[in-house]
Amino acid sequence: MAILGSFFMLNIHNAIAQDSTHNSSAKIALDFVTQDSINQVKATVTNPDANGKDTAVKGADVHFFIKKSFGLLPIGDAVSTDDNGEALAEFPMDIPGDQSGNVTVIAKIEDNEQVGNLETSKVTNWAVPTKTDHGDPKRALWASADNAPIPLVVTVTSIVALVWGTIFYILFQLAAIKKAGKLENA
Amino acid sequence: MEPIKIKLDKSNELLTDLMPRKFGPQGRLWVGFLLLVIIIGAVAYYRQLKHGLVVTDMRDFTSWGIYISNFVFFVAISLVGSLVSAILKLTNVAWRTPLVRISEIIAVAAITFAAIIIIVDMGRPDRFWHLFVYGRIQSPILWDVIVITTYFVVSCLLLYIPLLPDIAVCRDTAPASPRWKKRFYTFLALNWKGTSKQYAIIHKSINVLAVLVVPLALGIHTVTSWLFATTYRAGWDSSNFGPYFVAGAFQAGCAGVIAVTFVLRNHYNLRKYITNKHFDNLGKLLVLLSLIYLYFNINEYLVPGYKMKTVDGEHLHSLFRGSYAPLFWSVQIFGMILPIIVLLFKKGRKPLPIFIVSILVVVGAWFKRFLIVIPTLLHPFIPIQNVPESWHHYVPTWEEWAITSASLAGALLIITIFVRLFPIISIWETTEEKMNATATQTGDQTQFYGA
């Protein structure tokens, strides 16, 4: 065993890699690996030989990203593939994901002499789950309309009632003016 | 209460002097010009509806452009209604009578277009009703919607109720009028016969409205200031903003009423009713209001300028010495300092000089609102990196200018049409003043109201 007291766990996720390879024959595959409690993203780059058998691509620079709402967040610098065609990058522990902790990881190779442009993505649940607060039950200025502070509701409602009550009183006075005119006609 | 007797024949010079008249060539030209501006604005608004707010220069930084500064201007101008018809009434200022209706129609026209321009500023005007259905009572925006709606209704009532006896005069003294016009006046007159009871009701109603409109008017401008002051933005984060806005509104509104009064006085030859003394008094009022506004300006700019906190300092530099400096100093000097100096002298309070000064104040007031809204937005509280260059500047597009001009033209058109249909100086209140001043001849056989 190369690393004492450690264990090696290969964690292959069920999610299906969405391969959008530009080079029709070369491939890039993503796996998620946990080693010594450290989460790692592994990209394996292969290219078929003359017999159609996949062979490892060495020395290709792989860029890892996490897909965010409005762009791609890089995970460290580019990592070159080793003799096995593998590139490993540490997955940060504090990346916020969706409510289940899912994020999409993207691996990219750009303008490589052997494989050209390659890109793939895969979903992992290693991110920190985001807890959505569905309404603070406390009454506050920043709460939803249903949870407005009672003193504010009472104050605003009282002022509106007082002012509009006076307006309706004036409208009744207009009706009284009209009635007084009718009586004069009679 | 004694009914007010208004002679309905040609011997009553008030009728010949004050009844609405048909437009002459100048009037038709003026209406045509206003309609042209409105049509151009309507075309621009059609483009905005079709393509969205992208036709404006409003972007992520300047999310409120000249629509909102124009809105604040209209709210300011509308305050004049409460100044003349309520504050001067409650303080027993006798010379206000010929100015009351002018002030009220300015207030109604201004508050109408303040409300309209808010809808124009919305990217999805079809969702306007969401404000009422989904509004949060914690939000100053909802308070503003409530107070503007209320002020609009109260201003309309303050215009309409004192107009009733004069509508009845129009109804009964225009037999040659088209039938629609007769019906129009008859409908609006509410069976007005000029009885003691009817006069008692309108006197009471006017008094109630005068008391009601003062806090409401202070409220509308204070709440509008809170749209800004309840944020942390540089230039807006100020506890001074409420009174600062109210003071500015009184100044702008007073100047507005002076300018409109001057035009109407000259066009309709109302020198007998609106005298040089009125302008002199309005001038004194305007200089007082300008001094109060100057005081608040000193507080608003000098105190933060003394401290020059990081973000405030950046904002103030852009006003004092930066790209907005020419506009800022022009507004301060021509819209405030110069009027104070000119109006302190009696000659400066003659009709023509005070008219010119008032125009300066009104134009200054419009640009002042521009300076309140725009430069602050161009200095985001949180610095944002790598933003497009266009976000750092705001130059209104032709669509924005056209729509804004149309709103101003619309407000002037409301005033113009009102003057065409109704007496702009109250006939019955002028008669009442005369009754109070001299003994009424009771033996006259002429037809009277309430006789």
UniProtKB/TrEMBL annotation, chain B:
Domain of life of the organism encoding this protein: Bacteria
Annotated family: Belongs to the NrfD family.
InterPro entries linked: NrfD-like
Compartments where found: Cell membrane
Classification via PANTHER family: POLYSULPHIDE REDUCTASE NRFD, PTHR43044
Gene: nrfD
Taxonomic classification: Bacteria, Pseudomonadati, Bacteroidota, Chitinophagia, Chitinophagales
Protein name per UniProt: Polysulfide reductase NrfD
Bilayer topology term: Multi-pass membrane protein
Organism in which the protein naturally occurs: Danxiaibacter flavus
Gene3D superfamilies per UniProt: Formate dehydrogenase/DMSO reductase domain
Pfam families, sorted: NrfD
Key words of the record: Cell membrane, Membrane, Transmembrane, Transmembrane helix
Chief place of localization: membrane
Transmembrane segments: 29-46, 66-88, 100-120, 140-161, 206-229, 241-264, 285-303, 323-345, 352-382, 402-425
